[in-house]
Design goal:
Number of helices: 14
Number of strands: 11
Structural class: alpha/beta
Number of domains: 2
CATH architecture of the largest domain: 3-Layer(aba) Sandwich
Mean pLDDT: 92
Bound molecules: S-adenosylmethionine
Radius of gyration: 21 Å
Order of helices and strands: EEHEHEHHHHHHHHEHEHEEHEHEE
Helix content: 25-40%
Low-confidence stretches: 337-342
CATH topology of the largest domain: Rossmann fold
Strand order of the largest sheet: 5-4-3-6-9-11-10
Largest sheet: 7 strands, mixed
Length: 359
């Protein structure tokens, strides 16, 4: 797993670079080393197909691989652009001055204040987010812009308990001294949290010498357009547990997309209509897996992260894969005997190893 870059003056060990962790549901950060152990040495081009927080794509970049990372939600693909595709652009003090300057177009950039004041943020904070958003386009290039999105989105998740937006307790908890004692971020200005995080994100920008790309597509559309991928890593939503990512993270997608053509519904003001996933409902998921495997036929190795409590069962999944690949199922029991972050208590982490048929 060793990957280094030599220059005249220094030798950088990429494995020392720290991934700025998010609290993303189902993130595989803690299983990274275990998963990496199943990536064949000679697999050079890796697809992280459902990349979420980008933890596995980032790890592959550190391993010196050429990485194509993809998630159908824009705010996730911006993390990929910032930390995987980006080779050297960071946010400088001048960039931060631009981001913190006043709203360039208050009539156009008022969505956060209108939707989320007194729901997730106090008015001043929501208005700050609108002005920050109005200034992102003024940064020099798409990588600086992506870093601004990744960092401010992470700052927003620090302001809400559990790091997601499917509940409306953020301001209730911010008024509860006991909660604040446990998590001071609840009452800290987003600007301060952003300033604290920006160094963490900047240090994670590096060039591993390979071409790395971040995509933002439905995986079923993307797969047929790819050639020369050696290994695909699939970590789809776990149907029956935490599948509705747009329900949990709608606010980050709204901030990033700055929707002008959606309705905002129910208590959390989530946007509607949702993007179509195909991997969220029992009705669609088996057909979606069928398509996924058929459209991945040209990729030699597949690794699939799964969970023994999701639908369909592992047996059915293995049956769907068998026409294409030899299959082996590896299991990692949770060390604490109960589910860790984003997992169902008592379940275990599964990795389905699919390799070219030997016969
Ligand atoms: C279990 S999470 C991935 C977690 C990720 N491995 C990590 O370490 O953070 C599943 C991801 O699949 C994405 N997703 C759902 N349907 C998709 C689709 N049709 N195409 C691409 N991505 C999709 C979701 O947005 C979500 O981020």
């Amino acid at each position: 797993m060793q990957a280094t870059q030599c220059s005249l003056f220094s030798e950088i060990d990429f494995m020392d670079i720290k991934f700025p962790q998010t609290q993303y549901l189902g993130a595989k950060y803690i299983h990274g080393d275990w998963i990496a152990g199943f990536i064949p040495e000679d697999a050079r081009v890796i697809l992280d197909a459902f990349s979420g927080s980008q933890s596995i794509g980032f790890l592959c970049k550190k391993m010196g691989k050429s990485v194509i990372t993809n998630d159908f939600l824009k705010f996730n693909s911006e993390i990929g652009k910032a930390l995987i595709e980006n080779k050297h652009d960071i946010l400088t003090p001048d960039d931060i001055r631009i981001l913190f300057s006043k709203n360039t177009e208050p009539e156009r950039y008022d969505l956060m204040e209108k939707l989320f004041t007194d729901l997730f943020f106090v008015r001043e904070e929501a208005a700050f987010l609108d002005s920050f958003r109005s200034n992102i386009g003024r940064l020099g290039n798409e990588y600086k812009q992506a870093l601004a999105f990744a960092t401010i989105n992470r700052a927003m998740t620090r302001k809400v308990t559990m790091g997601h937006f499917a509940h409306t307790q953020a301001l209730v908890y911010a008024a509860d001294p006991q909660r604040v004692k446990r998590n001071r971020s609840l009452i800290r200005p987003i600007k301060d949290i952003f300033l604290e995080l920006v160094g963490e994100y900047n240090q994670a920008v590096f060039d591993n010498g390979e071409i790395c790309i971040s995509r933002n597509e439905d995986i079923l559309d993307l797969l047929p357009t790819l050639s020369n991928v050696d290994l695909a890593y699939f970590d789809p939503p776990y149907c029956d547990s935490h599948a509705d990512y747009q329900g949990f993270y709608h606010l980050l997608e709204t901030f990033t997309m700055y929707w002008k053509d959606k309705q905002f519904v129910n208590g959390t003001k989530r946007y509607r209509p949702k993007k179509h996933s195909g991997f969220e409902t029992k009705k669609e998921i088996v057909d979606s897996f069928r398509e996924l495997f058929s459209r991945s036929a040209h990729i030699p190795y597949w690794l699939i992260s799964y969970n023994d409590r999701s639908y369909p069962s592992i047996d059915i999944l293995v049956e769907l894969i068998s026409p294409y690949r030899d299959v082996r199922v590896e299991k990692k029991l949770y060390s604490r005997g109960r589910g860790e972050k984003g997992s169902v208590a008592g379940s275990s982490e599964i990795l389905i190893i699919c390799s070219p048929k030997t016969h």
